[in-house]
Amino acid sequence: MYQTITKQEKSDLQVTCYKLHTHTYLEGAKTTSNFRENIKEGYMPLEKDITYEGLFYDYSFDLRSEEDKAGTAEEVCKVNELFCPYYVEAIEPEAKSIYLAVGLNSGIQESEFQRRKLNLVVVLDISGSMNSFFNSYYYDANRNSGNTGKSKIEGAKSAVIGLLKHIRLNEDRFGMVLFDSNSRVYRPLEMIKSAQEMQQLQTRIMEDITIGGSTNMESGFMKAIALFEGIRGQLHPSFDNRIIFVTDAMPNTGMINGNTLADMMKRYSQHDEEHTRIRVYTTFIGVGVDMNSDLIEQISKMQGCNYYSIHGYDDFVRKFDNDFLQLNSTSSSSLSQSHVASLDIVDVYGSPNANASSNGNLMFVHTLFPLLKIKPLKKSKVRFFCNKNIYIYVYNVYVLYNKPSFFCGVILLQLRTNKNQNDTDTPFQEISLVSSYKDRDDREYSSQKQVHLRWKSQDRYYANLGIRKAVLLTKYVQTVKQWIKQERSHLANNDVNTWERQSTSLQVSETSKIFLLQMKQLFEQEMQVIGDSKLQQELDILNFLVDYEPKNNSSSFSIF
């Protein structure tokens, strides 16, 4: 459904060539949602429940210069150029910090983002923990008695039904694996040939699947791989091979080791030297507030893999139905930024794999995915790429509230110069940044851009409000991680085992309130300058934590 626009707005849009499609961001498709939901339900989140990339995904960042906004800047991308990064800087002299925000442009035509034919296997967790409710902890002794509504498994089955609507008859292949203590093939990997066959499959899923048993994730994964191996002779490079793994990520049977499962995923997401191994990517759907984000964080760093968290029945169905394309499309397999001799990297925010590497690269990112939530008009070009969750995802330029707007996500680099500020009077430094990347067919590309970097300033300097917002959100994540780490350092290790997760009531010590209050005051000041009302959700959390007093072990609060 498209948003109605006036004739004048339509004329304006012909300049930017974009139009709003459905909604502008995807609720729940980020690690941060587990952080929010645990606080909402009165539980203490894990430190890994909130990530920089997860929070960045929840926002849009306008990184254009004033020349870009005025339409006077040189065209950034060549037609059909896959990546052409966009750079803006910020300086905070009191902290001796230089920030470089990396936005990613593209000159790819819309047709490039139509998904390929698909070999898809859904691996569904039917262990006992999936019978619990979305807002409860399965391994708590007395937490489940007051819950009403649908269970995780009910939501999962309905979501798979929604997914099936996107399977193309006589074109895509669909298979399904169920796992608890063991695994079994529910449907072989083959094409659905008729609407009648589709209807029969949907009915079976809703009526036949029951739960029980322990959680053996490795067994489920390897059974799915066996389905791909079983049709090896029918596989074709024009198809994408993907597993959608639906679980609350609490394995307690088999190889209870996130690294073991991650090794399996990594092995099958890459070609071997002889190119004989089938290449299969995995999408993880983490379910419920007790979903173990530590485990998911490990296994979702693999090349070509992505991760979403789900915290309600409607959220589940929407993710599988409305947002099917971004679950299954891969745009690029890697991206690296060249090292700059006069700059040292302090940290990278926005992707856990975007780290300084041993071979001299400034930054390396494993995978890029298209996020086609916003539909361009005919003959338009996708312009901005954005960061999402564990990896970088593609956003289109879109119209927000009927006005043409350019937004993207961001990877934020914190840098320091190894030059003495007294060496030169000039506050600028000319640097050359080279981006090297592969597409999903392993074709290699590179691009080079000269950047006029401001590297010293007497006062705070932000090239635009987009990078200012990214810096603020980075500090916010650092602060709440500090709070979680401090409070959990005093807790006994009461988990059932390494990966099963029990709840801990929300705690905010007086010591934590001191630095949370400082963050709240900074956030209020910066929010007024930045002018993004959506930041209020973070300020609400800070206000709640600063004022928090436990009441009868119940701390669910109304700002959500």
Automatic annotation (TrEMBL):
It comes from the Eukaryota. This is von Willebrand factor type A. InterPro entries: CLCR, VWF_A, vWFA_dom_sf. PROSITE patterns: VWFA. PANTHER family: CALCIUM-ACTIVATED CHLORIDE CHANNEL REGULATOR, ZINC FINGER (C3HC4-TYPE RING FINGER) FAMILY PROTEIN. It holds the Pfam family VWA_2. Residues 119-324 form the VWFA domain.
